[in-house]
Amino acid sequence: MKEKTNLSVGVDLGTSNLLIYVEGQGTLFNEPSIIAIDKATRNVVSVGYEAAKLDGKTHSKVEVARPLQGGVISDIQLIREILLYTLDKIFLSNLDSINKLLICIPSEITNTEKEAIVELGHSLGIQNTEIEEEIKAGALGSGLDIFAPKGHMVIDIGGGTTDFGILSLGEVVLSKSIKIAGDYFDRQIIDYVKTTHKLEIGNQTAERIKIALSSLTGPYPMDEDCNLIHAEAMGRDLVSGLPRQITLSPQEIREVLLRSFDPIKSILLATLEETPPELAGDLVDSGILLTGGCSQIPGIKEYFSEIAQIPVYLSEVPLTAVIDGCKKMLKMTSRYFYSEV
């Protein structure tokens, strides 16, 4: 009889991307948290990149959905289907080889939603299912010693939310969250193009423009010849109803982003004001760590540093910090220590 394998599995259940780490094998899945479902049978058509390709291009028989929106679970059953589909693919349906499942979740998920996530793991036959906050995992995965008696601040700018956390002694002392992040920036670009240029564009076009032209401070994005980068946007003309193409400048997108960041700025200041004095003093040296996909926006480090008047650092692994921290947590020998082995 073949001996049963007991593996630990970590999951970064992000609004934009789903990442799955398997003990001894590394991160085996890193794709968009998107699922395509056959409306008639409710069977999974595709998950991840393949499902993302269908976004905005499906017919009436297929539904493309994001089970997490704005850091909130919109459909727990679809999350179950995504996890079942991906874990089945990795383990070839042999899920009983999973001994422990650690799922990292957004900070603002309610207790009811947390219980639902744990029950989801149980429904997959994994009784040893635990959850942890992404802000804590992201700090650990970025190399911070969060177990020391010293205050650290992390800002995680993901797809659905921007999360703020003050950590010390291995726990989140204070946290705040706002539903303004990558997806919101895309919607603001869509609204701007619609209002200013009378052109309707889709989510994929908006995201491509954001990646190409975004900046908050300093020089605008330039090419190798030091010329300003522009981006083409194609969509439907709101007046004629015909396809049309326009050119957008980096100056336009910066204005959109700066307006979008104003509420983020307010939450940052509110978090600093509520931080206990001793921990606030630590931040003068430890500064602020930025993680998440949108921490890669040019000029963001300088933007936050000017507001907070303390050092700001970018994670060296902004896109994988949470799953890297999840990996370390799976090796923890207690709540406050982990093994490097």
TrEMBL record:
Any GO BP annotation: regulation of cell shape
InterPro entries linked: ATPase_NBD, MreB, MreB_MamK-like
Sorted UniProt keywords: ATP-binding, Cell shape, Cytoplasm, Nucleotide-binding
Entry annotated with the keyword ATP-binding: yes
Cytoplasm among keywords: yes
MF terms in GO: ATP binding
GO cellular component: cytoplasm
Subunit record text: Forms polymers.
Protein name: Cell shape-determining protein MreB
Gene source species: Sphaerochaeta globosa (strain ATCC BAA-1886 / DSM 22777 / Buddy)
Lineage, uppermost ranks: Bacteria, Pseudomonadati, Spirochaetota, Spirochaetia, Spirochaetales
Gene behind the chain: mreB
